[in-house]
Amino acid sequence: MPMIFPFSVVVAVVLFAAAALAPRHASALTRHDFPEGFVLGAGTSAYQVEGAAAEDGRKPSIWDTFTHQGHSSDGSTADVSADQYHHYKEDVKLMHKVGLDAYRFSISWPRLIPDGRGQINRKGLEYYNNLIDELILHGIQPHVTIYHFDLPQALQDEYSGLLSPRFIEDYTAYANVCFKSFGDRVKHWVTVNEPNIEPIGGYDNGSQPPRRCSYPFGADCAEGNSSTEPYIAAHHLLLAHASAVSLYREKYKAAQGGQIGITLLGWWHEPASDTPQDAAAAVRMNDFHIGWFMHPLVYGDYPPVMRSRVGRRLPALPAPESAKVRGSFDFIGFNHYLIMRARSIDTSSGQEPRDYYVDAAVQNPSSDITTV
User: Fold this and answer.
1) Which residues, other chains included, contact 99 with Cβ-Cβ below 8 Å and sequence gap of 6+?
2) How far apart are CA 210 and CA 221, in angstroms?
3) pLDDT at residue 283 above 50?
């Protein structure tokens, strides 16, 4: 059964379009083309822009480890990157000059709490307070992502990160620090950015940290299990999200008046051909990709097609967890970059081993992309 969602789902679309603010031309958009109250903004992640990777008490994330081992496509690291840590005032002035209404950025967990739990890094706290204050000073809304892929390496080393339910407790404690420290000024919270892609890159094909996969689905991974680990990692991200939302609603929302949600990656899948098999593959792939998180958020369980095809490898959502997950959002963000073509593959023989794409009976669509 394909996904059907009620109108209560609010989808927030972030536009990364400086062209929308350009002078009016026949072929250009301006603010006048958008309804009143439409928020124009831009977004970044901490590891991509902050730099200062080893300064003022910050410790490595799994992305630092990944890039320093030479696994980025060009061998580069983000040790310096755009150096926003040192130039945030200049960056905010540029945002103001361009005319942005909002800036979505992520907190670096290993900058704020370097060991993943315990002591707060005062220099990290100071940086984010200063950035938030600077944005507000220039009339720009701070939209904060709590987790954007950069798990502290200390937690990966201690208990394998997202594969352990201990992640949920540590993430919730970290989110609590964020709410307590910044919630008087931050009114828009994103718990997790694109939780429906990190489990694939990190635990199925090994293209992203922590580089876990198993043959024949990934290349050169030292360890992992592509048949089970993507579903375990995603499950713990989902429960961590729900835990943080529950905490915010119980402890902070009434006093702070903010909104909290999650942002999913929205690769849309269309049939690669006009065959019934590919048409069905596109529906399945949208359920596996978007429904993986959207369905439990709205209905309290994973999509029926995933339950059927993944079986016992897909973690259970017992009643207490289901109730906590269902409705755990004030909004759902949707990052839509491209359209993929879904090609059906025959798995009727019970192919083993299996991974996410074999379970979906869809050829990995990354080789057939339509950009938007």
Assistant:
1) 21, 31, 40
2) 9
3) yes
Nearest Cα residue to 111 out of 71, 154, 68: 154
Q: Work out the average pLDDT over 43-48.
A: 98
Q: What tokens appear for 202 in the block? A: 């990190």
Residue 25 is predicted with a pLDDT of 47
**Residue 320 φ/ψ, nearest 5 degrees:** -60, -40
- Tell me how far apart the alpha carbons of residues 15 and 20 are, in angstroms, rounded to a whole number: 9
Which among 228, 268, 266, 259 has a CA at the least distance from the CA of 353?
228
Those residues whose C-beta lies under 8 Å from the C-beta of residue 65, and which sit 6 or more positions away, are 153, 156, 209, 210
Q: Are 317 and 296 within 8 A, CB to CB?
A: yes
Is it the case that residue 370 has pLDDT exceeding 50?
no
Range 213-218 average pLDDT: 92
| Strand ranges across the sheet with 188-193 | 11-12, 331-335, 259-265, 188-193, 141-147, 102-106, 41-43
**Angstrom distance (rounded) from CA 70 to CA 68:** 5
Handedness of CA 349, 351, 352, 358 (dihedral sign): negative
338 strand-pairing partners: 371
Topology (CATH) of 11-371: TIM Barrel (3.20.20)
Q: Where are the beta strands (DSSP E) in the chain?
A: 11-12, 41-43, 102-106, 141-147, 188-193, 259-265, 268-271, 331-335, 338-342, 369-371
pLDDT above 90 (res 133):
yes
Given a cut of 50, is residue 7 above it in pLDDT?
Answer: no
Pairing of strands 102-106, 41-43: parallel
Counting DSSP H helices and E strands in the chain, the numbers are 15, 10
**Separation between Cα atoms, residue 181 and residue 174, nearest integer Å:** 11
Find, among 80, 233, 79, the residue nearest to 155 by Cα.
Answer: 233
* pLDDT of the residue at 27: 61
Residue with tokens 């799994």: 62
